[in-house]
Amino acid sequence: MKTIAIANQKGGCGKTTTAVNLSAACAMKGYRVLVIDLDPQAHTTLAFGIKANDLKVTLYNVIVNEHTPIADIILTTNVVNLDIAPGHILLSGAEMELAIRYARESVLSEKLKTVEHNYDLCIIDCSPSLSILTINALVASNEVIIPIQTHYYAIEGLKQILDSMGIVKQRFSCNLESLRILFTFVDERTILSRDVQRQVREFFSDKVFKTVIHNCVRLAEAPSAGAPVLTYDANCKGANEYRALANEVCNHETEI
Amino acid sequence: MKTIAIANQKGGCGKTTTAVNLSAACAMKGYRVLVIDLDPQAHTTLAFGIKANDLKVTLYNVIVNEHTPIADIILTTNVVNLDIAPGHILLSGAEMELAIRYARESVLSEKLKTVEHNYDLCIIDCSPSLSILTINALVASNEVIIPIQTHYYAIEGLKQILDSMGIVKQRFSCNLESLRILFTFVDERTILSRDVQRQVREFFSDKVFKTVIHNCVRLAEAPSAGAPVLTYDANCKGANEYRALANEVCNHETEI
Ligand SMILES: Nc1ncnc2c1ncn2[C@@H]1O[C@H](COP(=O)(O)OP(=O)(O)OP(=O)(O)O)[C@@H](O)[C@H]1O
Ligand SMILES: Nc1ncnc2c1ncn2[C@@H]1O[C@H](COP(=O)(O)OP(=O)(O)OP(=O)(O)O)[C@@H](O)[C@H]1O
Ligand SMILES: [Mg+2]
Ligand SMILES: [Mg+2]
Question: Is A184 near ligand 1, meaning CB less than 6 Å away?
Fold first, then answer.
């Protein structure tokens, strides 16, 4: 199983939208995919029409209770080949609950070992912070996708997530090998957008996806229908671009 | 001194842009304003051209060290009548540092008591989470402004911030009296935007600002010039709308 974290402490850069639509696009290509909602907002869970408050057990129980295996909480979604480990607001208390636990940074990676033969790909949606939960996602992953808007604050934020990845690689034994940057909310008409893309591509060259996700209102509408954009409006720009992203991700050198 | 927290755990909804431009607009109206950067990303600090890493002391030192008064870190900005208490990435460790402190929720409100006679208005930028720092901001404030995008996830997120405000009022002695909702990134052309505005105004009626902040690329460009949009491009749509917001905030029933 290949595991990809969708992470960036900058808020609102398209982490959830990428986790939902990339996992759906890869599942539609035939891969067996597990999407993990590690954000207390539980928006990935909501995007598949699942209300976290209606669930008896969620990822919260798996993280804080050593005896709850992740298989106990996994649900199927309305997309074939795609399962979900739903999140819950209680995850916001996980920081304190994990504070004194031994090996607290690798709780998630240990839990995933029990299901890694059931899936080809695992995608983790993270919250907009570099908290212990996000560190767990980085330790559990082979690759990180960093969605960024083509704005000034976004570039500044890149340094912080890259520093954190460096620390995770140094301190914890993990298989975090590569990172890739994905431009989101792109509006080609603005000079700012073109400037930021040029600067980031110059600095990071082939670590930036060829695929770019443009501003597309259907991406913002789809969650209210409880479905990824690929089923909500299969031929809109957002759907085409996330399919193109899935092609890039699935053809990447690390074997799925 | 009136204290307003700009808070919403949903990422990227315009908290920093509102903190920066509202505080600048109120200062330009003649009020003495202090803006506090309580977000470890320190983007409000960056928006005034200040590099947090170059500073010897920041809000981090004030929060974790009982003997550092907030006056020790306050700087003037490039806007007359506007001072800043700069943030720093080290604030992300404050959660653990405060975990065992007595009365850890009111650290900020205690520190602000020592400068409340120097300012008419204090505006606090929060991080996209309901962490101990955001709770500190709520406990220290008289009012909360909740910026929301006109998207589906934004409405779901409102419930979480309202729940947190309820808990803060119940558990801690504080002066948190009112909340107001501000629409940001509005694009009048989309049905989604009109639908969300209608739903939220129906439910929250006069708790929603009349002023609406539209999508305006100058707001995203201004931080790269280290200045609020009111000085970067004084006549653009974003600048006019933040001036109108300042008029609504400064005329609100609670005396400044
Ligand atoms: N390319 C796009 N075009 C238009 N709207 C988009 C696009 N991508 C995401 N959105 C919408 O913008 C908002 C922010 O995106 P999203 O919630 O996915 O970001 P996030 O990084 O997960 O946010 P958070 O930091 O709060 O977790 C959402 O309402 C989403 O529906
Ligand atoms: N009305 C607007 N029109 C266009 N761009 C905007 C607008 N408001 C904010 N922006 C830009 O959108 C991005 C997100 O806004 P901002 O950083 O202020 O949100 P935030 O809520 O503070 O994010 P975070 O949750 O990370 O703290 C920034 O790059 C900002 O410059
Ligand atoms: Mg998200
Ligand atoms: Mg911010």
Answer: yes
Please give the Cα distance from B12 to B219 (Å, whole number). 13
**Cα-atom radius of gyration of chain B, to the nearest Å?**
17
| Six token digits for residue B69 | 């008064």
Query: Nearest 5 degrees, angle CA A185-CA B227-CA B29?
Result: 115
In this complex, is the C-beta atom of B221 within 8 Å of any C-beta atom belonging to chain A?
A: yes
Ligand 1 atom closest to residue B11's alpha carbon, by position in its atom list: 26
* Cα dihedral across residues B224, B230, B232, B234: positive or negative: positive
The answer to whether B200 contacts chain A (CB < 8 Å) is: no
Structure tokens at B155: 């409405």
> Span B67-87, mean pLDDT?
98
Tell me the pLDDT tens digit for each residue of A140-177.
999 999 999 999 999 988 989 999 999 999 998 889 98
For B52, B141, B222, the CA distances from B82, given in Å and listed in that order, are 18, 18, 17
Question: Per residue in B87-120, pLDDT tens?
Answer: 999 999 887 888 888 899 999 999 999 999 999 9
Decide if A167 touches B, using CB distance below 8 A: no
Using a 10 angstrom Cβ sphere, with 0-12 exposed, 13-18 middle and 19 or more buried, the burial of residue B256 is middle
Reported as type and span, the H/E element at residue A211 is none
DSSP A73: T
Q: How close does chain B come to A126, measured CA to CA in Å?
A: 12
* End-to-end Cα, chain A, rounded Å: 6
Residue A218: predicted pLDDT? 98
Indicate if the pLDDT at residue A239 is higher than 70. Answer: yes
CA of A189 to the centre of ligand 4 (A): 25
**Phi and psi, residue B150, nearest 5°:** -90, 60
Contact A182, A18 (CB under 8 A): yes
Distance in angstroms (rounded) separating the CA atoms of residues B153 and A124: 18
B187 vs A: CB within 8 A: yes
| Residue B119, both tokens | 């300012």
Q: Are A41 and B153 an interchain contact pair (Cβ–Cβ within 8 Å)?
A: yes
Regarding the beta carbon of B229 and ligand 2, being less than 6 Å apart is answered no
The DSSP call for residue A213 is: P
A224 lines ligand 1 (CB under 6 A): no
CB within 8 Å: B92 and A223? no
Nearest listed ligand to the Cα of residue A42: 3
* A-B contacts (CB, under 8 Å): 93
The total number of residues written for chain A in this structure? 256
Measured CA to CA, the distance from residue B108 to residue B5 in angstroms comes to 12
Q: Which helix (H) or strand (E) holds A76?
A: strand A75-76
Does residue A66 surpass a pLDDT of 70?
A: yes
> Which chain A residues contact residue B16 at CB under 8 A?
153
Burial annotation B51-86 (CB, 10 A radius, 16+ → b, else e): ebeebeebbbbbbbeeebebeebbeebebebbbbbb
